[in-house]
Amino acid sequence: MKLTLTLTLIVFVTVFDVGSSTTESLPETYYEFEGREDTGRATHATGACPQTSYFFPNIQTTTNYIRVTKPIPDLHEFTVCGIFKRFTNGVDWWVSYATMPGTTNNHNEFMIRHDSNQMEIAMNMKWVREDLKLSANKEYHICVTSFSSTGTSYVFLDGDLREIVHTKSGTINGSGTFILGQDQDVIGGKFDANQSFQGTMRNFMLWRRALEPKEIMKMYQDQCLCPQDYLFTLERKNIEISGGVAAVWPPKC
Ligand SMILES: [Ca+2]
User: Fold this and answer.
1) How far is the CA of 122 from the centre of ligand 1 (A)?
2) How far is the C-alpha of 72 from the C-alpha of 74, rounded, in Å?
3) How confident is the model over 15-31, as pLDDT tens digits?
4) The pTM is what?
5) Over pLDDT 90: what percentage of the chain?
6) What pLDDT does residue 13 have?
């Protein structure tokens, strides 16, 4: 019994290896923070993960992007994960999900970007900056889990929980436009070359639930496996590619 407890603590310490930039104390499990435990959660099958890999040329333009064609439902909680490499230290717009006409508010329902110094996340139009600086020309495995009931997002870097981001509560509405590589100021458009992505993006996908921290760590450790209940991957049947974005051969599994 004592051994089990010790092992459990070791696992927690390993999973929640917290970066020095985090200013608040992190909970033992993030479900505790959301008012529930992870122990009662259903288990989900893990299996072979469809491998996707895209190259966004190192030039600032409004024409390079990927649009997800798979319909997006209302999202009460969700997870996005991907393996990103930035070519430069400029502003990189990774994820932009828009549902509003955008005449009065240019912000997205959900957005992830990295400027020269930090990562930024928006939910329900509210932005938060986090002190996660990612170097150029290095691959990072990034997952963000979000809970609409509390407006809280959890940022995992290379398998570890690194930041808790408090944005704004409220369901992320479905039927919007999901774009990778540009910032939408109206649905599906009004891009800005300074707000584009130059780099590579591998295995980007979305689930309609917050993945368990241990599932995220497992995916980081073995990129060929992932929980099978994803809503979409960037397989060709699910996307439209624009401009100079190119599908490239992913690493072998
Ligand atoms: Ca913009």
Assistant:
1) 13
2) 7
3) 333 333 344 555 556 66
4) 0.84
5) 52
6) 38
Distance (angstroms) between ligand 1 centre and the Cα of 115 equals: 13
Alpha carbon of 68 to ligand 1 centroid (Å)? 19
- The strand order across the sheet containing 110-114 reads 126-130, 119-123, 110-114, 92-98, 177-180, 65-68, 239-242
For residue 141, name the pLDDT band (cuts at 50, 70, 90).
very high
CA distances (Å), origin 206, targets 61, 145, 203, 229, 242: 26, 10, 10, 9, 20
**Helix 213-221, helix 2-15: angle, nearest 10:** 70
* φ/ψ (deg, to 5) at 125: 75, 0
Structure tokens that stand for 111 in this block: 């957005």
Domains of the chain with bracketed CATH: 3-17+27-247 (2.60.120.200)
Query: How many CB atoms are located within 10 Å of the residue 124 CB?
Result: 18
Q: Are the C-beta atoms of residues 77 and 147 closer than 8 Å to each other?
A: yes
Distance 184 CA to ligand 1 centre (A): 6
CA-to-CA distance for 242 and 7, rounded, in angstroms? 49
Biggest distance spanned by C-alpha atoms of the chain: 60
Span between the terminal Cα atoms of the chain, in Å: 39
- 156 beta partners: 143, 161
